[in-house]
């Protein structure tokens, strides 16, 4: 209310205002407002609001979800790592088997190389691979010998 309006109301009103009574009304009003505020604050302190409970529940659920996702991520990582380890072990076994086969082949070739200087071995190689014959021998060849097998010179027909 503005000052002019208040003064007009007082002029038009024939009522007598008791200052002590008005003061007591104002103080009573302030006390009731203060008590209401104190009650409200006391209630808040005693009982948490349901909205607070919901927020706590939501936060707990969110934390559980994050923990589950983290555990799932760790499981996926470990599964991938385990698969990689298993495949590497399998590959290691294959390489070891291949190495063993190559070692055996190397030993056979070394044995052949050691026997390569032998006259009997050289003669056998010349007869089988190059189809050479000694003077006075007759070489008989069959159609299966022309197939490219290279091993058909077994029947040399020595005289």
Descriptive keywords:
disordered C terminus; rod-shaped; 159 residues; mainly alpha
Give the topology, please.
Elements: H1 3-12, H2 19-46, H3 50-115, H4 119-129
Low-pLDDT ranges: 152-159
What is the count of helical runs? 4
Strand content: under 5%
Radius of gyration: 56 Å
Alpha-beta content class:
mainly alpha
Tell the overall outline: rod-shaped
Q: Count the E strands.
A: 0
Query: Oligomerization state of this entry?
Result: single chain
Listing every helix as H and every strand as E from the N terminus to the C terminus, the arrangement reads HHHH
Q: What value does the average pLDDT take? A: 83
Biggest sheet descriptor: none
Helix content estimate = over 70%
Distance between the termini: 149 Å
Describe the structure.
There is one protein chain. This protein is mainly alpha-helical and 159 residues long. Helix content is 72%, strand content 0%. The protein contains four helices and no strands. It has helices at 3-12, 19-46, 50-115, 119-129. It starts with a helix and ends in a 30-residue tail after the last helix.
Summed up:
Helices cover 72% and strands 0% of the residues. It has 159 residues and is mainly alpha-helical. The longest helix is centred in the middle third of the chain and has 66 residues, at 50-115.
């Amino acid at each position: 209310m503005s000052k002019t309006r208040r003064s007009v109301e007082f002029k038009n009103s024939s009522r007598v205002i008791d200052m002590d009574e008005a003061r007591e009304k104002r103080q009573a009003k302030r006390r009731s407002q203060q008590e209401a505020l104190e009650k409200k604050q006391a209630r808040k302190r005693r009982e948490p609001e349901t909205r607070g409970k919901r927020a706590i529940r939501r936060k707990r659920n969110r934390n559980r979800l994050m923990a589950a996702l983290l555990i799932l991520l760790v499981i996926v990582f470990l599964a991938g790592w385990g698969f990689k380890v298993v495949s590497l072990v399998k590959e290691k076994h294959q390489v070891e088997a291949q190495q063993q086969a190559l070692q055996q082949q190397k030993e056979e070739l070394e044995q052949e190389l050691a026997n390569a200087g032998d006259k009997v071995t050289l003669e056998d190689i010349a007869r089988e691979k190059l189809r050479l014959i000694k003077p006075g021998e007759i070489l008989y060849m069959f159609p299966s010998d022309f197939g490219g097998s290279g091993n058909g010179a077994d029947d040399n027909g020595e005289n």
